[in-house]
Amino acid sequence: MKQLAALCGILIALTGVAMAQSDDPTPGRELSELIYGSIDSNPSESVDLGQFVEFGREVFVSMDSDQDAYVDMSEFSRWDFGFNFIAEDDGRQVSYETAQRILFAIWDHNADGQIDRSEYNKSMLWDFRRADLNSDAFLTRDEFLGGYIVIRAYRAAITNQ
Fold first, then answer.
1. Into how many domains does the chain fold?
2. What is the pLDDT of residues 1-18, one digit of tens each?
């Protein structure tokens, strides 16, 4: 449990980098907006919890390459929204891989080296609630870009600062 707390602290430090303004053109901004747009057919509106959870289910299925209902670190690190390419191009691969390991450790609640559907679903709910700054049960584009832990961690990792 102490390791998880330490990893959370590292992730929080990583996510603070270059995220002060929502219109900041930091690396990965455009990709992050495309990801938000893929959650709902009308991305100018906000995304509700149901849409976010369905998006998460689709991501989990695509990460689980061997279809055993678990995602191990190997599967997790191979699956990517596209941030890996940005990290490689910008020479930030080590930072990106570190962010991946931290996210995996946070989502692997029982620390058994695998994320099962239950752990992933709990993480998606927690991530949604954390990003929903005004607690209205909807994520605006700005809340998603500034508060969704995956987007924050990966964008921080690929930012040269």
1. 1
2. 444 344 344 444 444 433
